[in-house]
Design brief:
Strand content of chain B: under 5%
Low-confidence stretches of chain B: 32-40, 79-108, 150-184
Largest sheet of chain B: none
Largest interface: A-B, 45 and 35 residues
Mean pLDDT of chain B: 67
Shape of chain A: globular
Shape of chain B: rod-shaped
Number of strands of chain B: 0
Oligomer: heterodimer
Order of helices and strands of chain B: HHHHHHHHHHH
Distance between the termini of chain A: 53 Å
Strand content of chain A: under 5%
Low-confidence stretches of chain A: none
Distance between the termini of chain B: 167 Å
Largest sheet of chain A: none
Number of helices of chain B: 11
Helix content of chain B: over 70%
Mean pLDDT of chain A: 81
Structural class of chain A: mainly alpha
Radius of gyration of chain A: 17 Å
Number of strands of chain A: 0
Number of helices of chain A: 10
Helix content of chain A: over 70%
Structural class of chain B: mainly alpha
Chain lengths: ~170, ~250
């Protein structure tokens, strides 16, 4: 059982070791730097609030990414009416995806644009399986549990996602 | 059933193994490690193809992450009280907030107090109305009791209003004889009436019954005498008129 000082040290380690991964995961899903930063802050706030219930099993990153995934899902549910809008209206509600602000434009480099273009070819579940596999270094059973899907479904999403990316990244065929 | 599930489970396990190898972070996992001096198992073609795609994807993600600015995470505010403020200082810091519960309780009980005030005001008004009504009833009862007593003044006023001429006429003497023989003693009658009235008015509620009966009888006699006195005056005039009429008829004038 950690005291307050131990919790503080562990929290600092989490920010240092997993902060970038959590933000990268969030940015790849929400595609907006400001939203990703806010959600990243919220992830660590919730992790801090639940610090007394956390049992360290060496899977801190997976734990943080699970919180991040829930936040993204909640945000998607809150913005669900916007998802039903057409592309023109969508660009108004999500201007950062097409016309980023100056601060975001500086942050959004060419590599980020390429990544987002690649992820746009994937289904949402395929994106999440690949991102959780990369950032969280989870096995597929953990990914399936995080996404609340069967294992074969998670495996199928990963396989089809990789096949889609192969046509884009390796074979350069749209 | 188990035979049908067995191949699917084998396929699932095979796919899981292929994807684990293709997306492993450690490259040695893809090519397999030498276990017990045995050569590593050959990597399947599909796994190798997926591995190539995965590496391209991870390079893209890593390049995107490297282009991002440094991450700035603000420590949650909840860390401040637990780390920098001891629990002993908390009561002194929260003393001003003790006024809030008082205000809150007051606002909770204010409707009840308002109702109690209204009920008290209504009860006071009802009590005042009852007292006023009792005072009025008591006054009316007192007036009724006074009106029911055979007061001498009431007797004096009532009886002359309803005279009985026949009875009075029977008591009247002959006008011709009375006027001629005995003159009317008005002063004596008046004095008698005054005395009787004075006697009657001097009686009080606690006088003996005999005294009150005597007073009432005096009052009755007084009234009769006063009525007789009045009729005497009328009879004198009538007698004079009759005499004048007889004189005219007899041509004495």
């Amino acid at each position: 059982m950690l005291d307050d000082h131990g919790h503080h040290d562990r929290f600092a380690d989490w920010v240092r070791d997993h902060g970038s991964a959590v933000r990268g995961f969030l940015l790849a899903l929400v595609r907006r730097g400001d939203v990703a930063d806010d959600l990243c802050q919220e992830v660590f706030c919730r992790a801090w609030q639940a610090r007394s219930r956390y049992t360290d099993q060496g899977k801190a990153r997976a734990y943080l990414l699970q919180i991040a995934h829930r936040l993204v899902v909640d945000r998607g549910r809150r913005n669900e009416p916007q998802n039903n809008l057409n592309d023109e209206t969508w660009s108004i509600h999500e201007p950062a995806s097409t016309t980023p602000e100056p601060s975001q434009a500086a942050m959004m480099s060419e590599q980020v644009g390429l990544l987002h273009a690649a992820l746009d070819r994937l289904a949402p579940m395929q994106q999440r399986v690949l991102l959780l596999r990369y950032y969280g270094q989870m096995d597929f059973q953990q990914i399936a549990d995080t996404l609340e899907t069967p294992l074969n479904t998670a495996l199928s999403h990963c396989r089809r996602g990789l096949e889609t990316l192969r046509r884009l990244l390796v074979e350069n065929t749209p | 059933m188990n035979d049908m599930n067995e191949p699917s489970n084998r396929d699932l396990a095979r796919l899981n193994r292929i994807l684990e190898q293709a997306t492993a972070a450690n490259p040695s996992a893809v090519h397999g490690d030498a276990v017990g001096g045995q050569p590593p198992e050959p990597v399947e073609t599909e796994a190798e193809s997926l591995r190539e795609t995965w590496l391209a994807f991870t390079e893209l993600v890593r390049a995107a992450d490297d282009s991002l600015p440094a991450l700035a995470i603000t420590m949650p505010a909840t860390t401040l009280p637990t780390t920098t403020i001891s629990t002993a200082t908390i009561p002194t810091a929260t003393i001003p907030t003790t006024s809030k519960p008082h205000a809150h309780v007051a606002t909770d009980k204010s409707p009840r107090r308002r109702w109690l005030g209204l009920i008290a005001a209504a009860a006071a008004m009802l009590l005042c109305a009852v007292c006023f009504g009792w005072w009025i009833v008591r006054d009316l009862m007192h007036q009724n009791r006074q009106g029911g007593n055979p007061e001498p003044a009431v007797v004096n006023n009532a009886q002359p209003e309803h005279p009985q001429p026949q009875t009075v006429k029977q008591d009247l003497p002959n006008p011709a004889v009375d006027v001629a023989s005995k003159p009317i003693n008005k002063s004596a009658n008046a004095a008698t009436a005054t005395n009787v009235a004075a006697t009657a008015t001097t009686t009080t509620w606690d006088d003996p019954l005999e005294t009150q009966i005597v007073a009432v009888s005096h009052q009755i006699r007084n009234v009769e005498q006063r009525w007789q006195h009045r009729t005497d005056d009328v009879d004198v005039v009538q007698y004079s008129i009759d005499r004048m009429s007889d004189s005219v008829q007899n041509d004495e004038l």
